[in-house]
Specification:
By secondary structure, the chain is of the alpha+beta class. The structure holds 2-acetamido-2-deoxy-beta-D-glucopyranose (7 copies). One 2-acetamido-2-deoxy-beta-D-glucopyranose (NAG) binds at residues 501-502, 524, 526-527.
Amino acid sequence: MLTHLLLLLFLSFFSICFTSQAAGPYAMRLSCGARRNVRTQPTNTLWYKDFAYTGGVPANATRPSFISPPLSTLRFFPLSEGPENCYIFKRVPSGRYVVRIFFGMVDDPNFDSEPLFDVSVEGTLVDSLSAGWSSEDNERVFTEAIVFLTDGKASICFHSTGHGDPAILSIEILQVDNKAYFFGPQFGRGSILKTVKRISCAQGKPRFGEDYGSDPWSGDRFWNGLPTFGQSSDKAISVESNIHKVSVAPNFYPQALYQSALVSTDIQPELTYTLDVEPNSNYSVWLHFAEIDPSISKAGQRVFDVLINGDVAFKAVDVVSMSGGVDTALVLNTTVAVDGRTLTISLHPINGSHAIINAIEVFQLIAAEAQTSAIEVGALLALKKALQLPHRLGWNGDPCVPQQHPWTGVDCQFDSAKNRWVIDGLGLDNQGLRGFLPRDISKLSHLQTINLSGNSIHGSIPPTTGTITSLEILDLSYNFLNGSIPETMGQLKALRILNLNGNKLSGRVPAELGGRLLHRASFNFTDNAGLCGIPGLPTCGPHLSAGAKVGIVFAACLGLLFIVGCSMIWWKRRQNILRAQRVAAREAPYAKKRTHFSRDVQMTIHQSARTASENGPILLS
Ligand SMILES: *[C@@H]1O[C@H](CO)[C@@H](O)[C@H](O)[C@H]1NC(C)=O
Ligand SMILES: *[C@@H]1O[C@H](CO)[C@@H](O)[C@H](O)[C@H]1NC(C)=O
Ligand SMILES: *[C@@H]1O[C@H](CO)[C@@H](O)[C@H](O)[C@H]1NC(C)=O
Ligand SMILES: *[C@@H]1O[C@H](CO)[C@@H](O)[C@H](O)[C@H]1NC(C)=O
Ligand SMILES: *[C@@H]1O[C@H](CO)[C@@H](O)[C@H](O)[C@H]1NC(C)=O
Ligand SMILES: *[C@@H]1O[C@H](CO)[C@@H](O)[C@H](O)[C@H]1NC(C)=O
Ligand SMILES: *[C@@H]1O[C@H](CO)[C@@H](O)[C@H](O)[C@H]1NC(C)=O
């Protein structure tokens, strides 16, 4: 009985754990600069402290806007920490995500102006802050992007543009449906949706999805209120009745969104909404409708065209007929190319009716950047460590993307065949580098140019350097490199410029390098500890064939044998002479007087006598 109960308890506990884990979307919220986890009201939202995610400096924050979450700290990134700083989230399940970043202002009178900086998600630039973002009532206090995260991590970087230190209030990574905002054939990993605008019509108050009690899979979207289109002719209507077909996959819109609407009137039958956008970009526009006007009950009573920048996007929209009834949600989406700086949505009624609209969403379509070859990123990180790269150079995030912010000293090239970036140049001359050159430098196999001149690099040139076959220019001058030039360097067939001057190199320069000089290459080996072997340098002694070397070794061995033999003979001879002298000394009275211990003298006499008789008289002569 008890065991049954326990089993039941265990099973139910297990199923609770299992279902809650399987059903819930991944949600990670960071309160930047916080010393401990924070909960914010009224929704009791949990924000984790951002310890160990990145560098930077924690500080107290002033929240620039009514939209900002009620958090009291931020993290800022002074330029001394490098031009790019990143938060790296690990173990993020593969899927589609809303990534949202709120900016803050350091609560300190010494930080006077608002910082301007760039934001990237997974290497793609998603925002460039422009002046005025921190002014009151501004909606631009956050960046939101809808992205696919498929490599188990999320990397969010802030790039300095020379206008103050990037300061971040919070970061949210909220999983949504894999088909969320499916906008057409180009939907996929290659495209990112950047939220430009999300408004709820006839609402005075801005609200987050959580305030609406919306589905956890909806990404806690922010809906700003739009009380009127501004023509003072539209009419706000709202209902309490239930709306059908709301909160359905993939976008889970909250019911409240459809319970209010703006309707045009006889004075101005058209509704027009204009927003400023970045020119020469594609935009995904999502329009929400529900016929909540009690005066409309049948299809055909309200019909209107939707025009975007003057072009018909949806012809003859009849909400009742398209949604299937009154009080029923209808979501339409379209993608438009915009050349200019504005995007205008206008609803033109036909057949004498009026237009209605409940909500609008506008996203900028951004092509996701390709990443840099993982092997080459690993090699650069090995280099960063081995060369003790100074903090001010940064080297965080992806080396090549966003293309506007490559790592300092790294030149990139796009490999279209493999849809990835590779490194073709390394220019870190006069950067105060210490440490040594790692073997892994050879994994940067597309390098054409390396300039590490004028640093304090020690140790030897790794022999693996000889495998970077595309290398044309190698400048390692004015360092403290020692040892010899690796023989493998002779394999660098494309090498045109080789500057090794001003180091402590010694030994023979590989003969192939010397041969290259005939082909108008420019090599400089001066000012080293002692290089030899090619024209212009001292000779290293006669150049010998393999056979000659064997001969020399053989001769040397013979010579050695001869010397050893001679020394042995000489030693024996000397011993015998000494013995003979001692034998003679026994007879001499002056020698006796010089000896203090007669016993020792005795022993010597005995030994000498014996050896002398053994060796025979010839050697004594
Ligand atoms: C931040 O604010 C708290 C109190 O709210 C204060 O104790 C602390 O010293 C402040 N920190 C800084 C760096 O100003
Ligand atoms: C968006 O519109 C396209 C057609 O333009 C349609 O295929 C797609 O299903 C729509 N997306 C959603 C989520 O309704
Ligand atoms: C907009 O989309 C079209 C077709 O989908 C594409 O050819 C064009 O390059 C896109 N424009 C921009 C600026 O991305
Ligand atoms: C508009 O009204 C005319 C006649 O009044 C009708 O023929 C036409 O089908 C209507 N158009 C729509 C889109 O309902
Ligand atoms: C490498 O950098 C140094 C110092 O900036 C410069 O003088 C030199 O010309 C560069 N080497 C090459 C091969 O361009
Ligand atoms: C080169 O210098 C390093 C110290 O910087 C030393 O440990 C090493 O033995 C030297 N190698 C040669 C071949 O002189
Ligand atoms: C080679 O380097 C030395 C300094 O180490 C310099 O004086 C000389 O001009 C260089 N030669 C060439 C050809 O650049």
